[in-house]
Amino acid sequence: MDNLFPAPVANFADLLLDAVCMVDASGQFVFASVACERIFGYTPEEMQGRVMIDMVAPEDRARTLAAADDIMGGHPNLHFENRYVRKDGTLVHLLWSARWSDQHQLRVAVARDITAAKRAEATQAALYAISEAAHATEDLPQLFQHIHQIIGGLLPAACFAVGLHDECGDQLRFAYHADQHGPLPQSLLAHVMGEEVRRLGRPLLLDPADLAPLPEALRSAAGLSPHCWLGVPLTTSQGPLGVLLLQGQGEHAYTDRDRDLLLFVSTQVATAIQRKRMHAQLRFMAQHDELTRLPNRRLFHDRLDTAFARAQRQQGRLSLLFIDLDKFKLVNDEYGHDCGDLLLKEVAWRIQACVRESDTVARIGGDEFVVILENVGSPDHALVVKDKIHQALSVPVALAERGSLSIEASIGVAHYPDHGADTLQLLRHADNAMYASKAQPAPV
Ligand SMILES: Nc1nc2c(ncn2[C@@H]2O[C@H](COP(=O)(O)OP(=O)(O)OP(=O)(O)O)[C@@H](O)[C@H]2O)c(=O)[nH]1
């Protein structure tokens, strides 16, 4: 190097904090200033003779070669950004200014390390994207997928898992678990790791090379996996919500900086989850009856429209059962409103137990329930269900200190296509049939 440049020039270049490099027409480094060691991890001597493009991150190579061609064609570049792979394997983000010297047949370039700024930029973008995802996604599983993608852009995440506290707050339930390596044994480790992060209430970095400080259960689970893991608690202003776990890619070892970054982002993740849960809760409340948690009148009509359209399209059958409790008012009057509530909940539960999960049971009024039976083979099938419900409701309901309570119900049935060509006709038919049944004297 000293032969190529007068000593003062090389000395001045070595005083600069940015890296000064010179590359010949074949793309080899012929000069690298002292600052290169801090930026690239290689000493100037180690850099000399290396092929520039081999040090560039593979994803940035095509762009870098195109920019180099342009510079050598006589177009200096003041702002070129790319990433190099440092000697320790990590990436460094660089901002280059470069020009071609015809006289020396060299590309002269100065590189500034902008890794910290890039990381801050990426973190801000991730925070924004997570908050956007809370609005843009339909439900929690979709939100988790988005968050996985966003965090995967910041940190390696071969496995990404979100565990949420159950309602009692004493168990973790994995609401999202995406794993490139298959479900086991990593998911066992994810479980043990998640519990440990939850117990500690702070981040945990698991490095297979340094398991000694970990509790026994975690150590033995981690012994099955050669990968590095990172776990952080998800916490909102209202308290702990769950944990977020990442597993490193291949040999990648997470650093303390990765841990701090994930912890920083985790607040936004927790807020997004909480917001999504709140939306889901509001939607549920708008569509369900608070007491029995059955679909309410509005959701019933939606479901009926959908089921009706499907039956029409598939030329299938559908039955509607209108159920009205008899003399329910007396229950309230004689036993009190609380007992009335209890009875309604029990009735809801018993009706649901008589039908398939794909059928709909809704509460559309005080003591009025309705059932949509889909894919019924024949009207007889609906009559069997009707008898089943009669029987189920005829069993007295036990009241803690007041003995038991019996209730009867009037049930009206309407079949599609027999009793109506649209939902209105069907509803009317079922309602009339129910009133006709109520008007009949009770069997002695
Ligand atoms: N406990 C309780 N009672 C309710 C609720 N919603 C409505 N009710 C009561 O349910 C009763 C319904 O009365 P009606 O429609 O006259 O029905 P019924 O007494 O069963 O009369 P029939 O249907 O003619 O046999 C009223 O007393 C309402 O106050 C509720 O959520 N909880």
TrEMBL record:
Start and end residues of each GGDEF domain: 316-444
UniProt protein name: Diguanylate cyclase
Pfam families per record: GAF_2, GGDEF, PAS_3
Domain PAS: 18-75
SMART domains membership: GAF, GGDEF, PAS
Alphabetical list of InterPro entries matching this protein: DGC-Regulatory_Protein, GAF, GAF-like_dom_sf, GGDEF_dom, Nucleotide_cyclase, PAS, PAS-like_dom_sf, PAS_fold_3
GO molecular function: catalytic activity
